[in-house]
Design goal:
This protein has 295 residues and is an alpha/beta fold. It has 10 helices and 13 strands. Helix content is 38%, strand content 17%. The structure holds NADP nicotinamide-adenine-dinucleotide phosphate.
Length: 295
């Protein structure tokens, strides 16, 4: 019999990849505020409404939960700590303490680190700089406390958002396509995975008998945001002169952001999960982009 698997955030950039990938092998359920045509078992709820969430969990009794729902808008989180806390911490507590759930996958972020180091390993001390990452880090603690078998996946992602996308990759691509001049940070480094690859790797984790705990899921090599934009420009024949190389310090965001949050993925690799290089990650993303747009 297929296991019951609940995905939160399945209408989002990452969650939709889980929904696509896992619907064959699992009996997949989804929850969220917007309807999802591709989900056969969708409950239309705001997961910050704890009573509704508990009721739905009691109806589904999921054996596995993949918790992707979040507010990734750093400005929103900074402007409203309570909302961010309610979503990233309180809802996470309700989800991770549900008694039927054996495995709980919490999608976390590389930005739990302050970015003063690099190549972070799982045991490095977290030091989140803003409300988004502070509440995501608190969510990690909650999962480790309440879930039977917690798996914290620290990651960064690039991909396609449903509808009109505003992810980092899509922003860069759209600006360059419109011949807009853009700035790329030469001192902000990351090693993201393509959302589809991350979904594949989490699926591998589900099928392998890997010890519970915290894992970094990342590309095996890193890149600056500036060079990432250059790679996009090269791939699509945009003018690389549109991209100006600057330091993040030259812009005043008003919100603290970490500079180098590159993640060391040796722990997951040693458990049999192999990650692509950043070049392979970019290629995988481009292949799908071309398929989508016939570019
Ligand atoms: N995007 C990044 O660059 C990045 C980097 C590192 C880690 N991550 C992590 O990766 C995960 C997925 O991020 P993403 O980029 O895919 O996010 P996204 O595209 O913005 O999607 C967010 C999802 O959360 C759901 N959601 C938000 N508030 C909700 C609420 N109150 N009730 C129910 N559902 C709610 C949204 O669904 P509805 O609007 O339908 O409710 C949507 O499906 C997150 O946990 C994030 O922290 C993201």
């Amino acid at each position: 019999m297929k296991k019951k698997l609940l995905i939160t955030g399945a209408s989002g950039m990452l969650g939709k990849e889980f929904l696509k990938l896992l619907s064959f092998d699992y009996l997949v359920y989804t929850v969220g505020r917007s309807s999802i045509k591709t989900s056969k078992n969708h409950y239309l709820i705001d997961i910050t409404e704890e009573d509704s969430l508990k009721q739905v969990l009691d109806l589904i009794n999921p054996e596995i939960i993949i918790h992707c729902a979040a507010n990734v808008n750093i400005n929103d989180c900074e402007a409203n700590y309570e909302n961010a806390y309610s979503l990233h911490v309180n809802s996470t507590k309700v989800l991770s303490s549900h008694p039927t759930t054996d495995k709980f996958i919490y999608i976390s972020t590389d930005s739990v680190f302050d970015g003063t180091k690099s190549n972070y390993i799982e045991t490095d001390t977290v030091n989140p700089l803003n409300n988004y990452s502070k509440t995501k880090a608190k969510g990690e603690e909650i999962v480790l406390t309440f879930a039977k078998n917690p798996y914290i996946i620290r990651t960064n992602i690039i991909g396609f958002s449903p509808g009109l996308g505003n992810s980092f990759f899509e922003w860069g691509f759209n600006e360059l396509r419109n011949s807009a001049n853009i700035k790329g940070f030469n001192d902000v480094f990351f090693n993201p995975l393509y959302t589809k690859d991350l979904a594949d790797k989490v699926n591998e984790l589900l099928s392998l008998n890997i010890p519970k705990g915290i894992y970094n899921f990342s590309s095996s090599s890193s890149i600056s945001k500036y060079h990432f934009l250059i790679e996009i420009a090269k791939e699509f024949n945009f003018d690389i002169k549109l991209i100006q190389s600057i330091s993040i310090d030259a812009l005043n965001f008003g919100i603290k952001r970490p500079k180098n949050t590159t993640l060391n993925n040796a722990k997951a690799s040693n458990n049999g999960i192999v990650f692509p290089s950043i070049q392979q990650t970019i290629e995988n993303l481009f292949k799908d982009f071309k398929k989508r747009t016939n570019a």
